[in-house]
Amino acid sequence: MKEIKLSINNQKIVVPAGTTILEAAKEVGVHIPTLCYHPDQAIKANCRVCVVEVKGSRKLSAACSTPVWEGMEVITTSKKVLDSQKGVVELLIASHNQDCLNCQRNGTCELQNLAERFNIGKTNLDIDILTLPIDDGNPSIVRDPSKCIKCNRCVETCSKTQGVDVLTHAHRSDQYIISTPYNLPLGSTLCTFCGQCSAVCPVGAIVEKDNTEQVFEAIENQKKHVICQVAPAIRTALGDAFGLDDGAIVTGQMVNALKQLGFDKVFDTNFTADLTIIEEGNELIDRITNGGTLPMITSCSPGWINYVEGKYDHLLDHLSTCKSPQQMFGALSKSYYAEKMGIDPKDICTVSIMPCTAKKFEAQRDEMNTNGVRDVDVVLTTRELAKMIKMTGIDFEVLQEKEFDSPFGIGTGAAVIFGATGGVMEAALRTVYEVVVGEPMPSIDFEPARGLQGIKEADVDLNGTVVKVAVAHGLSNAKIVMDMIDKGECPYAFIEIMACPGGCVGGGGQPINTTMATKSKRIESTYKIDKEKLQYRKSHENPAINKLYEEYLEKPLGHKSHELLHTHYHPRDKKIGNIKLK
Amino acid sequence: MSKSVSLITENYNKYNPDSIDEFINIGGFTGLKNALNMSSDDVISIAKASKVMGRGGAAYPLGKKWEQAKSVPGDNKVVICNADEGEPCTFKDRSMLEKDPFRLIEGMAIAGYTVGAQNGYLYIREEYRHLHPQMKNAIKQAKEKGYLGKNILGTDFSYNIHVYSGAGAYVCGEGSALIESIEGKSGRPRIKPPFIKQCGLNLLPTCVNNVETLAIGTALLTHGAEKYLSYGTSDCPGTKIISIAGNVNKPGVYEIPFGLTLREIIYDIAGGVPGNKAITLFQLGGASGKIGPPSLLDTPYSYDDLHKVGLVIGSGAILVVDENMKPLEFLHSIQEFFCHESCGKCTPCREGNKQIAHILDRLLAKTQKDTDVDTLIRLAKLMSQSSFCGLGETAQSALLNAIRYFPEEFGLK
Ligand SMILES: Cc1cc2nc3c(=O)[nH]c(=O)nc-3n(C[C@H](O)[C@H](O)[C@H](O)COP(=O)(O)O)c2cc1C
Ligand code: SF4
Ligand code: SF4
Ligand code: SF4
Ligand code: SF4
Ligand code: FES
């Protein structure tokens, strides 16, 4: 590739053609401020906080969007540059609802960081904020337009990455806003509540709905037996919120922190992930042998479910009827566990720690109850758990490792990889192959399902019948697969779909600053746990699962399973998109 | 009146704009025929020799633009005629659409031939909707007579023209916002690179020219560059269609040779100020243009001479403001325009315009804060240095010149 020589603040540097000033500056240790820039997204160049001087240019240049050229001389340290960058920050703040002390992004906010960096003080500008109603009418996401800096990162995520396209920009000049179709609340659109917008928002304009207080209250309530389940993708991500290395494995520390927070029991969603594999694997075998609807598609990602119910409601039969691991856990907690412990299900409060904002929505779906008792009472995202830990002053870094409690404490490697795109496919195949063929897969590591490629395909030879499978992550990739099914051109028998790019390690509720690079690290750690840290690597080998079937469920797809572990889906109202909640 | 000329406007009122035959009878389409008889490089040489600068406002040399557009690789290219004419006080392109539509079509075809395009798009300001039927009719007739369509005049050159309507946003006059608008998106400018000359309408290489620029193209190919060069001054040859309005006795569109002084234009051509009132200021080039004090009225109307005193030709608009209006009141009305027209995409323009409006309100009401004038200057500079597109970059041109020429209005002297 062609190389370009340039200088930045008089330091000489050589970079490949096509590099931007922003990237080149990083190479020489100069961090130009940014706001609309996001490493996983297209360049937008609308915030203008990254402007720098380029010798010979009439104007300042946006570092994020200006490619370097031979002999370019860039200055990022002049008063002119600093005044302009600071001026942009000041302008944004003057139209911003400066509510840091009450803001969910206090401490993780890019605008706040820049205010500190530029020593912003009393301003001579007019404070003039466009106040519009806060949208908190759904269980997952809260939008506060008064904090929006109009960077359009959420718009790109929703329209391009997710292909849901319910966020856009509207109007002009100081009336310019980020809007939904007809400016309806998100709950009345086809929003999937995936929360990817909240994960890329640089400020507190789109955040998860905070449910931490509910959990503190439940724990305080002596009458309540409060238990929690932790999803597979939390243990490789939570450390980020405490400044640990990307992808740090913190399972034991996390369990310890949860116990200190006062949960009566700390369980592992991996347990019901294994259970999902048993039920879903048998469902797949049943559909293949008895001529059921194929391809069968996984159903553990609630953002994905919301998407299908909204945009492909004529294809709902393709979804596995299995509830997600979170909801299987919830149902068992209010039935099997309640009976075993002799506690009235009404006195059990089941809390989930999830990487996902759509899980909050899922838990509130009308049908997610067992004999009139909610399966899952409160869902917290990784970010909220981190906040609770911070609030209590627990020093996460020095925590001793603790073990999950039984009876839902054992999970296999197959369950842990649910957190990475392709993981459910791999886990299912480890079991299905063995059930059908009668011997283990040639290699337990199913490489074709791994990695960050948007759509992955593979052929699996089941006793002479070649079954085609596919994995898609990110809803825009899901759309490609669904259109194949719609046109009757889909060669696959089994498909894994996750709403979020990278799978749950990249969920919309994961710590702020999650990028594709961070996700890769988490995925690496996920496979490491599977390979190195766990006794069992196949769901059907989980002794606690086998015990559950013996003691309670009897058999996969049996009567009890259907009652507790399976569900059904509804088309969403096209006009208001809304699903009736509890 | 004798100081005005008629070269680009030579056909005004000479034929019925509904009739291609009448146009042909007075020599119409000679320019296109001449062009088709030479290589596109020869056409570019003529454009270069004439030293014509683009008339859309940015004054980009026509020859250079065509040369670059031609050299971009691609067998599918686009010419866009920018008839958005959104700059306040600018109505010279309208006169061309009204009075000589076929010259424009001819110019678009010449441009298409020169740069190697198959399609031309005519983007007409929404407010000119009454002119759409006439333009469409002209295109239809030109096609019927073989001046557009397949194998024009028996050559290999095939070219069609499509008419699109603006939707009322000033920013859609900016080339890339205009393209977004034709593509059916909301009209906000695009990020560069990629430059539209390489990747414009529907991702195709695109050459955007102003109406007047293309009309000049027709004149150059009809009469040769020498004729054009015989007007104006040696440093700034040629003619310019201006639109003059405000406090003058005879507002309107005039074609003038470069080099007349502003005083000659205002007093001899436009008939002076009603009631012989004194001039407070004038603005050249529309709302994004610069303002000047009466002491500059003897400046010759040419790119260089105006540039020397901090003025621009811009769109060719000349707005005269008499003593009934104070500079601050004038700036206030300009500011209202930009507060309405900023597309809102980038911070400096969206937020800067709003802040400046607040300060101008206070200055007018004499309730300003001590810091206001400093803030005003700071923000105006920030906008011109850091905005995403030309709108924010030039929105404070009038203000910055007002500070230079009317410092006392801001308590600076
Ligand atoms: C905000 C803005 C508005 C503009 N409006 C117009 C317009 O109405 N008509 C026009 O010809 N050019 C307009 N321009 C200039 C165009 O971007 C472009 O430079 C011009 O059409 C090129 O034609 P020319 O080379 O023939 O001048 C505008 C530019 C900006 C930044
Ligand atoms: S979004 Fe950022 S700057 Fe705004 S109130 Fe919240 S923390 Fe403060
Ligand atoms: S939650 Fe997902 S679908 Fe809903 S607005 Fe955000 S990105 Fe779009
Ligand atoms: S809501 Fe957040 S991500 Fe979306 S434009 Fe506003 S600040 Fe940017
Ligand atoms: S300068 Fe910015 S806000 Fe203003 S019109 Fe251009 S892109 Fe839009
Ligand atoms: S980061 Fe460059 S303009 Fe926003």
Account of the protein in words:
The complex is a heterodimer of chains A (582) and B (413). Chain A has 582 residues and is α/β, with parallel strands linked by helices. Chain A folds into three domains: 75 residues, Roll (Ubiquitin-like (UB roll)); 94 residues, 2-Layer Sandwich (Alpha-Beta Plaits), CATH 3.30.70.20; 354 residues, Rossmann fold, CATH 3.40.50. Chain A contains 19 helices and 19 strands. The model of chain A has no long low-confidence stretch (mean pLDDT 96). Chain B is globular, with a radius of gyration of 21 Å. Chain B has 413 residues and is of the alpha/beta class. In chain B, a hairpin with a 5-residue loop joins strand 7 and strand 8. Chain B is built from 17 helices and nine strands. At the A-B interface, helix 2 of A face helix 13, helix 14 and helix 15 of B. One iron/sulfur cluster (SF4) binds next to helix 14 and helix 16 of chain B.
Give the gist of this structure.
Chain A contains 19 helices and 19 strands. By secondary structure, chain A is an alpha/beta fold. Chain B has 3 domains: 20-229, Rossmann fold, CATH 3.40.50; 239-322, Ubiquitin-like (UB roll), CATH 3.10.20.600; 327-410, de novo design (two linked rop proteins).
Keywords summarizing the entry:
heterodimer; A: 582 residues; alpha/beta; Ubiquitin-like (UB roll); Alpha-Beta Plaits; Rossmann fold; five-stranded mixed β-sheet; four-stranded parallel β-sheet; 19 helices; globular; B: 413 residues; de novo design (two linked rop proteins); 17 helices; 9 strands; 42% helix; binds flavin mononucleotide; binds iron/sulfur cluster; binds FE2/S2 (inorganic) cluster
